[in-house]
Write a structure and sequence with these properties.
PTS_IIA_lac/cel, transport, mainly alpha, 3 helices, single chain, Methane Monooxygenase Hydroxylase, Chain G, domain 1, 104 residues, transferase activity
Length: 104
């Protein structure tokens, strides 16, 4: 179980970074700074990609027969990642909407 703690904390770290970058993208878009908004969305995507690779590795190990002991921190990490993905997707829509509004 201890060996999974660094994995869980990496998922939390990258998920949190992605969430923050996505929300930052919305703030930039609201101010009319489309370039900064897109850069923040890109940063969020990179963070999610990093977390997703870590997550996929964990899943592949379990599928290969390596036992994964689930604890509250690992569940929290999974929740953190899923929320970050959802927020990033919604942020992309907000950025698009603000771009449309600002162009009118």
């Amino acid at each position: 179980m201890e060996e999974q703690m660094p994995i869980a904390f990496q998922l939390i770290l990258h998920g949190g970074n992605a969430r923050s970058a996505a929300l930052e993208a919305i703030a930039f878009a609201r101010k009319g700074d489309a370039e900064a908004a897109e850069a923040s969305l890109h940063q969020a995507e990179q963070e999610i990609s990093t977390a997703h690779c870590i997550h996929t590795d964990l899943i592949q190990k379990e599928a290969g027969g390596e036992e994964t002991k689930v604890n509250l921190i690992l569940v929290h990490a999974q929740d953190h990642l899923m929320n970050a993905i959802t927020i990033k997707e919604l942020a992309a829509e907000f950025v698009h909407l603000y771009r449309e509004i600002n162009n009118k």
